[in-house]
Predict the 3D structure of the following.
Amino acid sequence: MEIVAESVPEVQNNIVQSKGLPINISYKREGVATSTVVTPIKSIVADKFAIGIAMNNVADMKLPFFTAVYEGGHYTFETLKQTIVGLYDFFIKIFTGSANFAEISGPVGIAGIVGDAARLGFTYLLMITALISINLAVINFIPFPALDGGRILFVIIESIIRRPIPAKFTNWVNLIGFGLLMLLMVIITYKDVLKLFK
């Protein structure tokens, strides 16, 4: 089946009418015309099919209250899981020397992303805000000095050895950890600034 449509509703109707059969989609990327075959799957709306594409003209999907709560929770869980996996892979790559800092963003990059989301609409701004909050929460719980996760790690160690860790040692470890975090932030910010001039 091939989609031939000139409007967003026509594209949506053709996808729904495909009944799950493969669809041939032609599109342009950077001025180059190409095509691909995708298979629609059942969406969160009963008896409707969907594919993972984004169109210029978009709208908010309104769901029943309990369905919206469930889908919101499911989306949050999946985002949390992917964030944890992504950060784990990134830090592993840092220690192996294969990390690609272009894949992450600091304050400068985040400001640009938030600006783009705000131009697309309130829903996108809300989603990017939630995504940033989830990322910050996951990062803060990493068992690394100067983060809450590092403090929790010290508490666990103290409960195991049944005596407090010397304050001088804790302060030095937190200071070194903070310095490394600041170094990482400088590198990421430098990469973000370079992206602005490309």
About this structure: The radius of gyration is 23 Å. Helices lie at 8-17, 65-96, 107-120, 122-140, 148-161, 167-196.
